[in-house]
């Protein structure tokens, strides 16, 4: 491409690198296709030398549509994410990610849980690593979370799906459960999760969704509290949410039953 036509003074070596990395650019019109995209980036108050750097790091930018890619993602970045133009200069690959499929969902999750993360960390990592980093950020002052503990907890979603023929709990819901009840990371799958999930679904005939609302369920003894309280409710023909059934003391639990019976 010609430097003067594109409007940016670019060394021969840099031009060759861009062309080699993105051969498809050869079929584009400089005047009608490439120049408008470069001008758009410059209009965002990105210095021309920074635009060159962005293109060198991510030549695919020049293949994207201004209306369908650049504008909606820039608007979301500024208005919804409240980020500045400096992040685009550091991470031009932002434009490579799906707005609906990745950018919005991850940003919503960060906002809902009070997290802040650079664009690179937010988008470049896999789904599992993204959630793992959030858990470590939240729990680091409280408990040391190693990768083994994190991975072991994710296994429960697979166990639920395979053992009980259910879709299980979405990974983001698992993360929410951990953030609400960090002690879950210390529990055994075989000795805690599996028997309690089995009892919840088969004996109590509850929905797996109740675990998302009350992950502390796993903190209570199956034989010492869950089973006895459930049997009492069945005998009296009562139903209660897991939290009301388990969080109260025996005296308050019995008083609740007497009150309802009266």
UniProtKB/TrEMBL annotation:
<dbReference type="InterPro" id="IPR038538">
    <property type="entry name" value="MTERF_sf"/>
</dbReference>
<keyword id="KW-0804">Transcription</keyword>
<dbReference type="InterPro" id="IPR003690">
    <property type="entry name" value="MTERF"/>
</dbReference>
<dbReference type="Pfam" id="PF02536">
    <property type="entry name" value="mTERF"/>
</dbReference>
<keyword id="KW-0806">Transcription termination</keyword>
<protein>
    <submittedName>
        <fullName>Uncharacterized protein</fullName>
    </submittedName>
</protein>
<dbReference type="GO" id="GO:0009507">
    <property type="term" value="C:chloroplast"/>
</dbReference>
<comment type="similarity">
    <text>Belongs to the mTERF family.</text>
</comment>
<dbReference type="GO" id="GO:0009658">
    <property type="term" value="P:chloroplast organization"/>
</dbReference>
<keyword id="KW-0805">Transcription regulation</keyword>
<keyword id="KW-0809">Transit peptide</keyword>
<dbReference type="GO" id="GO:0006353">
    <property type="term" value="P:DNA-templated transcription termination"/>
</dbReference>
<dbReference type="GO" id="GO:0003676">
    <property type="term" value="F:nucleic acid binding"/>
</dbReference>
């Amino acid at each position: 491409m010609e430097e003067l036509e594109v409007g940016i003074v670019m060394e021969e070596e840099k031009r060759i690198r861009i062309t080699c990395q993105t051969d498809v650019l050869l079929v584009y019109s400089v005047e009608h296709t490439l120049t408008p995209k470069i001008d758009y980036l410059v209009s965002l108050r990105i210095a021309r030398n920074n635009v060159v750097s962005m293109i060198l790091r991510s030549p695919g930018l020049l293949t994207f549509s201004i209306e369908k890619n650049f504008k909606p993602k820039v608007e979301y970045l500024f208005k919804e994410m409240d980020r500045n133009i400096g992040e685009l200069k550091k991470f031009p690959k932002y434009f490579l990610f799906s707005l609906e499929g990745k950018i919005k969902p991850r940003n919503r999750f960060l906002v809902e849980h009070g997290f802040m993360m650079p664009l690179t960390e937010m988008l470049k990592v896999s789904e599992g690593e993204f959630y793992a980093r959030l858990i470590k950020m939240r729990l680091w002052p409280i408990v040391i979370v190693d990768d083994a503990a994190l991975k072991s907890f994710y296994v429960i979603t697979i166990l639920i799906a395979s053992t009980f023929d259910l879709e299980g709990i979405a990974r983001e819901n698992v993360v929410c459960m951990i953030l609400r009840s960090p002690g879950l990371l210390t529990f055994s799958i075989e000795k805690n999760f599996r028997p309690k999930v089995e009892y919840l679904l088969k004996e109590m005939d509850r929905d797996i969704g109740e675990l998302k609302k009350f992950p502390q369920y796993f903190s209570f003894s199956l034989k010492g509290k869950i089973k006895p309280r459930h049997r009492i409710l069945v005998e009296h023909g009562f139903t209660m949410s897991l939290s009301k059934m388990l969080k109260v003391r025996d005296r308050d639990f019995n008083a609740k039953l007497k009150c309802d019976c009266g």
